[in-house]
Design a protein that fits this description.
5-stranded mixed sheet, alpha+beta, elongated, 241 residues, 6 helices
Length: 241
């Protein structure tokens, strides 16, 4: 069940069940793909979020009422020939160094969560995360769901500058800072992989609906992997259906 409402004069908002969970987000991503593949004249962009999709349109080419009707039809028509959620998702295997120079908050989390640093790393790397949406910073992917034992609060005093490619936790989500920026997530490591490159045709490494699993590397491996990735000699995708 979806609800469609105006979002200014040139956009509309498609609301799904208002909860943050993989099941609802899969429906969001699936409908986004359907809209993109339908190539409806006048539709300018489709931006998925946790449990909604923002659709921008040119009112001179298509009216709100007609677009609303077409979206309801797309959502209900289960026989439409579009790529499925499964065929669009990618599964990424991302290296993370959890060693002290990069794990800025790992010791604090050890105290906050009352579990060892080793167990925090084990839990963080044992889960396959679904990317719900991109936002906050260009290419910042909100990923969930963390194990309950890793649920943590944001920092009381956010950093003025979190290093680029830092891996953090907040609530039941994890994410990677695509660039140096202020932020309040608990930083437990850093990846040598750049997830945002403005020079690329598609500057974002990830898309909503993709999956990510992290694996640990040591500090001495960081630069080697970073250089290999920049040279195009490092494989990240482990499954592309």
């Amino acid at each position: 069940m979806i609800n469609i409402v105006p979002y200014g004069d040139t956009a509309l908002l498609i609301n799904f069940e208002q909860t943050i969970e993989p099941r609802v987000n899969r429906e969001v991503v699936e409908l986004t793909h359907q809209l993109e593949e339908a190539h409806i004249p006048g539709v300018e962009f489709c931006t998925p979020a946790y449990c909604s999709v923002t659709v921008g349109f040119d009112p001179e080419l298509i009216s709100f009422d007609l677009l609303k009707e077409l979206i309801f039809t797309l959502n209900k028509n289960k026989n439409i020939k579009t790529k499925s959620f499964n065929s669009n998702k990618k599964k990424w295997r991302i290296p993370v160094c959890y060693d002290p120079p990069f794990a800025l908050d790992l010791q604090d989390l050890n105290k906050q969560l009352n579990i060892s640093e080793k167990e925090i790393i084990r839990l963080h790397t044992a889960t396959i995360y679904q990317i719900y949406m991109l936002g906050f910073l260009p290419g910042f992917a909100y990923m969930g769901v963390l194990p309950d034992s890793l649920k943590c609060t944001r920092k009381e005093n956010p950093r003025l500058k979190v290093p680029a490619q830092s891996v953090g936790l907040a609530g039941l989500q994890t994410g990677i800072y695509p660039m140096a920026a202020p932020g309040g997530w608990q930083i437990i490591g850093r990846t040598p992989i750049s997830i945002f490159n403005v020079q690329n045709d598609n500057p974002f490494l990830f898309s909503a609906g993709d999956f990510v699993q992290f694996f640990p590397i040591k500090e001495h491996e960081f630069e080697k992997i970073e250089n290999a990735y920049k040279a195009g000699n490092y494989q990240l995708i482990i499954k592309d259906d």
